[in-house]
Amino acid sequence: MPESVYRNRRAVAIENDRLRVTVLIEGGHIAEIFHKQSGVNPLWTPPWPSIEPSTYSPNRHPEYGADSESKLLAGLMGHNLCLDLFGAPSDEEAAAGMNVHGEASIVEYQIDAKDGELTARATMPMAQLAIERVIRLRGTSVHFTETVENLSALDRPSAWTQHVTLGPPFLVGGSTELLTPATQSRTLEGVDFDWPMRPHDDGRVEDLQIFTSAPVSGGFTTHLMDPHLAKGFFIAWSPESKVLFGYEWAWADFPWLGLWEENRSRQNPPWNGRTITRGLEFGASPMPESRRKMIERNTLFGVPAYRWLPAKSKVTVEYRAFIQTAESLPSGVPTQ
Known about the structure:
Layout: E1 4-6, E2 9-15, E3 19-24, E4 30-35, H1 70-75, E5 79-84, H2 91-95, E6 110-114, E7 117-124, E8 129-138, E9 141-150, E10 156-166, E11 177-179, E12 182-187, E13 192-194, E14 197-199, E15 205-207, E16 216-225, E17 231-238, E18 243-250, E19 256-263, E20 276-283, H3 291-297, E21 299-300, E22 303-304, E23 307-309, E24 314-325
């Protein structure tokens, strides 16, 4: 499949009669899962210009901010992979050149694609990891097989999170609904609650099943997927577009789902008070935090807060995305 350009970025796309999936060469982001019948891509496209991570420079590009997240934000789009950090690096790691969420979202991928199948491969030199992601289209489903290889001679405690981010026009404040089999939940500040009613300091209780319509920033919460189910999932439904979109994965691989949203609140660059987005981040770690804090946390609600990548070994996970038109949000586990 020849290289193409997607929103000023080098990309490769695969498609069938129902879907088109576009992957960015630098960063490996899933930029779109485009549903041809409805004309909707539920994934987030930032409102600021997107550039290749390899071209980013703090001095030349102050419009993306001035911290360890800026290089990521300059090229961020859609569904990005957090590996093997989920959150910010330590001060020492940042000084050594590590960015928020690790290298997987900024390195260049070698991509081969044909007949509705795409394989993207990259090496993360600082982390000494290699990643291979195989994407296959099956009707209105997108199937992912992802293999991480530890190239070093040391066992590695690792975060591994699929950072799926929704955006307009699919995402509408006060309207877009969410279904997921969450159980125990905790805010980033350490307040525990039961899904989906999140308490606030001012006495308000927020229903996390509905995307907020109020100006808000951050508000990260983590949610343990129901351990009685073999699979975790989320389903988002947009009443305006009548599109249902979600992901499904093995609980043993990714027991946590993090939620984060921004609704025209952040005024600093590149957000500039004009961004609407909601992150649904399923992974091996509950909180976006440094590696040190992740290891010190060790567990949450009795479930590990990271997974091990054994020395000179490969670990493989599988998950899928699905999209279709629907008149309402269903209940229960998504059908195969």
